[in-house]
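Kindly go through the entry underneath: sequence plus fold tokens. Please state briefly how this chain folds according to its tokens.
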Amino acid sequence: MNKVRTLGDLKKTDWAKRAGRSVKDEMRENLVRKLKNNETIFPGIVGYHESVEPQVVNAVLSKHNFILLGLRGQAKTRILRQLTELLDDEIPVIAGSELNDDPFAPVSIEGREMVRDCGDATAIEWMPREARYIEKLATPDVTVADIIGDIDPIKAAKLGLRLGDERSVHYGLLPRAHRGIFAMNELPDLSGKVQVGLFNIMQEGDVQIKGYPIRLMIDVLLVFSANPEDYTARGKIITPLKDRIGSEIRTHYPKTVQEGMEITAQEAWTKRDTAVKVPTFVTEIVEEVAFQARDDNRVDKHSGVSQRLPISLMENVVSNAERRGLVLGETQPVVRTTDLYAGLTAVTGKLELEYEGEMKGGETVAREIVRRAIGQVFGRHSANLETQQITDYFDADNNLKVPDTLKTEQLPEVFSKVPGLMDAAKSVAEGKSKDDLAVAAEFVLEGLYSRKQVARSEERGYSAAELETMGQGGTRRKWN
């Protein structure tokens, strides 16, 4: 399609009717259209349909600047970046203008002079919506010059201007987001004077740069993200800035394991050159690890446990199965329950530990969390599972070592040595192949190990669980 290239031609189009429309009006109109057509507002965002999404929609409909408050790994930045889908595909701007000037209402001196001097011959460019989103991570070293702008003495000297002249300003990120979206992550990490600059330009549209008052009537949607702990009276946020933010929206982690599994399946890279099969109960355990970590008293609740943990863990367990398959020559490797322990490196780096956890060590805590997750999932899959024969076998001082050199399809022969194990495996297996039975049998053993009904060690493999002594000479099996 041929786009108009001059202001005169633009006046003959429907854009003339949109003169003076703000970016918030634009987003509201596009959102209303999407809602009427039952279109997906935030594709790829799982678990927020009845909580966060309606609040973001309300904020946009209200034409509010808003902030997303949540712990790490709660899709805050992803939501902010998807706001561009509510912008027009492209908009006309004055060619060469530094602030994306609207041809019908330029805000910069340069833009106004171009329209004054050239009139209907003013050159027009078209700006795609992706270019109308500017994002900045707040850090203590960010300055007013970075966000608002600064006096450029070299520019002033070249143009023969006073330092207080608006044309001597080198604009920062916020003015350059004119007619678009400006996103600031971790807002409370900004220094106090930068926060003051923000709330002044949000409400009054003016700011002082190096002592010179400059009015910047920019048109922008301001959106922020922050940790709830920092966004309080005890935190690092200036109250007048907080007061000027229209909506405060709380994000959260997946509320159910099923929601978490859906997110992980969507985000984890599991499609390898050699197809790797992942049993459903392993997928469930991977997600349960995150839920167990969030409930663990040794993990810092203020820091949270990112949704990146199960995503990285899933990628690691698939990689371990892929590596085993390549070494043993398996055509389709299958993820086993024990692969979860090989993926601990994806867990330890994502846990901020309290003092007790630090004393025990990150790997020990992670291993215990994985073991507890296996136990939880095993409990959900073993309601009617008969395991007495299995525990009796090990209680009779028998043990079972599972060789690392065997293909998965060869393991049923090893597991069949334990009475009742293969029958239990058939009850939880997802198929009837040897691979399915093998991974199911190992899941049963690992489930019993996680519940301390059997023991496992490098030397003996699976063996009898320890018994603890009770009063009057009795004993009982240890449980978590």
In short: The radius of gyration is 30 Å. Residues 308-328 form the longest helix (21 residues). The CA atoms of residues 407 and 452 lie 27 Å apart.
